[in-house]
Amino acid sequence: MTMRTLIFPTLLALGASFANGQLLDPKKLTQQPTDTWPTYNGDYSARRFSTLKQINSGNVNGLSLAWVNRYGSGNGITIKSTPLLVNGVLYFTAPNHVWAADAHNGRELWHYQYRQNTGSTIGNRGVGIYGNWLFFEAPDSHLVSLDARTGKERWSVEIADPKLDYTSTVAPMIIGNHVILGIGGDHIDNPGFVQSRDPETGALQWKWYTTPRNGEPGIETWPDEYASAHGTGQAWIPGAYDPELNLYYVGTGNPNPVMAEQSRKGDNLYTCSIVAINPDTGKMVWYYQVSPHEVHDWDASVPIILIDGVINGKPRKLLAQASRNGYYFLLDRKTGEHIVTKPFIDTLNWTKGLNAKGQPIPDPAKYPAPDGRLVSPASGGATNWPAQTFSPETGLLYVGTSRSYSMYYVTDTDDHPEGWAGLDAQAGTDGSALIAIDYKTGNITWKHEWPAGGGPSHMLSTAGNLLFTSNGSNFIAFEPKTGKILWHAGLTGPMTAGPISYELEGKQYLTAAVGDMLYTFTVNPPNK
Amino acid sequence: MFRTTVFLAGVVALPLLAQLPSTPGTKATIEASPAAIAGSKQDPDAVARGSVLFKEKCGGCHGMTAKGTNKAPDLVRSLLVLDDEKGLLISPVIRNGRPAKGMPKVGLSEPQIGDIVAWLHAQTFAADHRNTYLFLDALTGDAKKGEAYFNGAGGCAKCHSASGDLKGIGGKFDAHDLQGRWLQPRAGRGGRGAAAKAPITATVTLADGKKVEGVLERYDDFTVSLKDASGEYHSYSRNNGLPKVEVKDPAKAHTELLRKYTDEDIHNVTAYLSSLK
Questions:
Q1: For testing contact with chain B, the best of A189, A371, A478 (most B CBs within 10 A)
Q2: CATH number, domain at B51?
Q3: E strands of A161-290, at which residues?
Q4: What is the ipTM of this complex?
C-alpha cells in the first residue's frame, strides 16, 4: 500500500469512535487530561498537571525515545504550540501551518498550509478543537477552521484589520459553543480586544475591548478616550476557565505607547490585568490590575492557574499568576479579592512598594528616559508566556525565571508618542532559575539555579512525582518536592512549547516540541 | 511581548544621530529615521520633499508630525493611511479636501501629493517599527563625579585605565553607544571598533584532584566542556554538581555592579568616559 491509502482507514476508525461522530467529546474539556489533551493547557484549570503516573520517579531513569519526527524542512518553522491530543492524533501548529500526526509514531496524517500573506510569523500557540472542527489564528488576522479529520479548510473569517499589524498567534479557547480569541501586537497603538466566534459559522458573538470607552468604568484611568482606545493591552495567550462560576480568566498585555507614558497618565485599565469574563456575554465580571501604569512591556498575558486550595483553614477557589513584572499574585477567583503579592526575583528595582490592594506602585524614577534607566527585569520579564505548572500534590507552582537587567530608553519625547516610543537595551543578567512557589504564601520553597542559560522555560508536572522542563537543549525531570534532578536527555535544541503527557492503550507518553520537531518519550517494560 | 532585547546601539551610526533634535525634555518632532524610510520602501527624496510640504500645508491642523491636534486627526494612527497603498486612498482626500469635515482643498500638484503620501507612509512605518528608532542624547551626567566613581566606589580602575585601555574611547562612540558598551561588554555587538571580548574561562577539578583549565565552551547541569591553552578540547559529564567547576568571567564585575549602580552613577560614568577624547 502507498502512504496515502494508509491514512484513510486510520481516520475512519478515529471518526467512528464517538457515537455522535464527533472527535472531541465536550466532557473531556472538564476532566483531568489522561487519554486526551483537548485544550492548550490540558484542561480548563491551566495547571498543566497530568494525573498519569505510569512514568514516575521510580522508573524515570528508564524514560527513552518512542519516536521523533520533523515536520518542517529547514524553512525556519518553530512549533510554539502545545499539541492537542484527541483520539490518538496530535494537532499542532507553526505560523501558517497546521499538522495532524499519529501519536503512536509521529507519522504525519495531514499538513495544512495557509495562503501567502505578510502577517507577522513571530509564533502560533496552537489550535482549539470543537467536535470535528479545528480553529487557529492565521498571521493576517483571520480565524481559520479546518476539518480535523482531513485538514480541509471549512472557512476563514477576519478577526481584526489585517493592515493594522496585529500579531495573530493565540490558541483559540473553546468554552461551550464559543471560540474565544485574543490577539497580539503592540507595534502601533491598536485597540485591544478579546472576542468570541460561533464554531459553526465564525460569526462574531461578542467583543470585549481591553480598554474602556467614554461612559464605561475605568475610562477615568486614562487622560481621554483617544488614549484609551489606542491603549492596546492585548490578551495574547489563552487563559483559564471555571465551569462552576462560568468565568473565563485571561491576562491582558501592556499599555501603548509602550515605553513613553506622557500621553497616558493614570492606571490605564484594563491593561496588565487579570480579568474575569462571562463567556456567554463577553461582560467583565471583575478585574485585578497587576501592573498599574505599566511602562516596561511587562504584559500580564502570562499563565493564569486555577487552584482549589485552603487559605486560613478555609477552602477557597483561587487563581494564581507569577507575572512578567516579577510578582506572584494570588486572588479569590470568584470575587477577584486580593490575597497575596510577593516578589519572586530579588533584583526588582522598579517599585515603591505595594498599595493596600497588593498592587506594585511604579517608581517614576524608573520610567524609561532619553538617557536610560537601569531596571530589572528586562522587557522580556521575570518570566513570560512559557507554560508554568501547578502540582496539587506538592502545592507548588513551578516557574522559569530570569533576573535580567535592561537600560530603558524613551526615543519619542513628543506630547503624543506613538508605537513603542522607546527601547530597552540589555545590560546583563544576574542569572536564571527554576523556582517552586508555595501557592499559599508566595514563598520560594526551592530554587534550581541554572549554571548557564535558562529563564522562562516550559513546564509540566505529573502525579508520577515528576516535573519536566528544559534548560538549553536538555530535557530534564525534577523531583517536584525537592528540586532534585532525576533524569535528562539532550535534544536538538531548547523546548519551544509546553510538553504534554497522555496515555494510548494504557501506555503513558510524553511529547515535547523542539523547533520543527516533536520528541515523544515512554518507559518501555523490561525485556522478558 | 516575548522578544529578544534589541541591541541597537551598534546599529545607530553617528551621522544619523546628528540629524536628530536630541535635547531631552524638548518636544521632539520625530521624523522617520533613514532606516525607517528605507524600510518603508519610499523614495527618500520624495519623503524629504513631503516632510517640508506637509509642515507647510497640513501641519497647522494635523500637527508637524502628523499626530493630530484638536483641529484635525492623527494621521499616523489613521486607518485610511494604514490601509492605503500607493496613495489610492490618501490622494483623493488631499486632492479634494473634506469640506463637510472642515478640511479644505490645499491646492497641491499631483507630484506634491505623491510626496506627502510618501512621507506619511514613512511616518507610520517609523512608529510601527521600533528597530528603526533612534536613541536620544545619553550625555546627561557629570564627568567629574563619573571620574570619582570610576576610581572609587565603582572599582572600575581595578581593571581599566583612562590612559590605557580606555584611551580616546570618548572619540570612538557617541554617548548612548558608549553607555551600552561599558554597561554590558558582552551584549551582542561586534564589528569594527568593538572591544575585544575576553573569553570566559573555567577550572574543572576532577575526582582525582586534577585540575583542567581553559576557555569555557559549554556548561550546564550535565556537561562541562572547555578548550585548554594548547587548543585541546575537554568535555566531562556532570552529576549532582560534580566535578566542581569554577567559572572566571572577566566581565563579572560589570554584572555584580548591576545591583549597586544608581542611574546617576551610570550617567556620570558615561559622561566621564565620553570626555576621554
A1: A371
A2: 1.10.760.10
A3: 173-175, 178-181, 193-197, 204-209, 240-242, 247-251, 273-277, 284-289
A4: 0.91
* Contact criterion met (CB < 8 Å) for B24 and A379: no
A260 to chain B, minimum CA–CA distance in Å? 12
Q: Nearest-CA neighbor of A66 among A34, A84, A94, A90?
A: A90
The alpha carbon of residue A347 is apart from the nearest alpha carbon of chain B, in Å, by 7
Is residue B193 domain-resident? no
Which DSSP symbol is given to A468?
A: E
Secondary structure letter of residue B103 according to DSSP: B
The pairing of beta strand A444-449 with beta strand A460-462: unpaired
Q: What is the pLDDT of residues B58-91, one digit of tens each?
A: 999 998 889 888 899 999 988 899 889 999 999 9
Which residues in chain B have their CB less than 8 angstroms from residue A472's CB? 220
Count of other CB atoms within 10 angstroms of residue A514: 21
- My answer on whether B217 and B123 are in the same domain is no
Q: Is A35 a catalytic residue?
A: no
CA distance B176 to B81: 33
In a domain, B277, yes or no: no
CB contact (8 A) between residue A409 and residue B135:
yes
Q: What distance in Å separates the CA atoms of residue B57 and residue A518, rounded to the nearest whole number?
A: 59
* Cβ–Cβ below 8 Å for A420 and B130: yes
Domain containing B45 equals: 29-132
**Strand, helix or coil at B172?**
helix
3-state SS, residue A173: strand
Q: Is the pTM of this model over 0.90?
A: yes
From first to last of the 528 residues of chain A, give the pLDDT tens digit: 344 444 444 334 443 444 457 889 888 888 888 999 999 999 999 999 999 999 999 999 999 999 999 999 877 899 999 999 999 999 999 999 999 999 999 999 999 999 999 888 999 999 999 999 999 999 999 999 999 999 999 999 999 998 888 999 999 999 999 999 999 998 889 999 999 999 999 999 999 999 999 999 999 999 999 999 999 999 999 999 999 999 999 999 999 999 999 999 999 999 999 999 999 999 999 999 999 999 999 999 999 999 999 999 999 999 999 999 999 999 999 999 999 999 999 999 999 999 999 999 999 999 999 999 999 999 999 999 999 999 999 999 999 999 999 999 999 988 889 999 999 999 999 999 999 999 999 999 999 999 998 899 999 999 999 999 999 999 999 999 999 999 999 999 999 999 999 999 999 999 999 999 999 999 987 766
Decide if B170 is inside a domain. Answer: no
- Which residues from B are below 8 Å from A370, CB to CB? 24-25, 135-138, 140
B217 with B126, same domain: the answer is no
Report the gap between the CA of B141 and the closest CA in chain A (Å): 9
| Cell numbers for A457 | 522555560
Residue among A43, A140, A186, A297 flagged as catalytic:
A297
Any idea what DSSP says for residue A365? G
Chain A residues with CB under 8 Å of B217 CB are none
Hey, is A228 helix, strand or coil?
helix
Label residue B190 exposed, middle or buried (CB < 10 Å: 0-12, 13-18, 19+): exposed
Residue B88's CB is within 10 A of a number of other CB atoms, namely 10
Q: How far apart are CA B263 and CA B257, in angstroms?
A: 12
Cβ neighbours of residue A19 under 8 Å, at least 6 residues apart? none
Find cell 539555579 and name the residue: A449
**Contact in structure between A391 and A461 (CB atoms under 8 Å):** yes
Nearest CA in chain B to A456: B2
Residue B156 lies in a domain: no
Domain count, chain B: 2
- What is the Cα–Cα distance from A325 to A322, expressed in whole angstroms? 8
